[in-house]
Design a protein that fits this description.
Layout (H helix, E strand, L loop, with lengths): L3 H82 L4 E8 L3 E7 L2 E6 L4 E5 L7 E2 L5 E8 L4
Antiparallel strand pairs: 1-6, 2-3, 2-5, 3-4
Length: 150
Amino acid sequence: MFSLNFYIEHVLLLLVLFMQKNKQTKSIQRGQVALEYLVITGFVLLIVGILVGFAFFSFNQNAQIVKASKSVSEITNTADLVASFGEGSTIVFEVDIPSEVQSFSLTGKSATIAFTDNTQVFDYTKVNLTPTTLPIQSGRIKLSASFLQK
């Protein structure tokens, strides 16, 4: 029969083979974990990039609307102020026109800025405004408001 030495040699041989296979399995598992980590990190970065892009676009659009609202309010408030001073009074003031403006007009008792995406910003005055179309170039422009009793 087989000797005890024979059994010990085979058990040690099997143990060595098992350990080598276990080392290979561990390195494969490490590589798989690293690859999964990279894929998850890439996916998270893609989602964050999309969210940042959307937030920037939305912020830019909202900033233009706020700028237009401020400009329209400045015009209507100045018209009301000039009317309160009485006949023949005039005020020169500046307004900041945002980009992407399609039209800028004064009609009746309202001032309106329309954007290229069909968004409109308007405000009303207490006095009638002389109907006119204002320049639509972006940036600061000087305007004058005069009160003439008709």
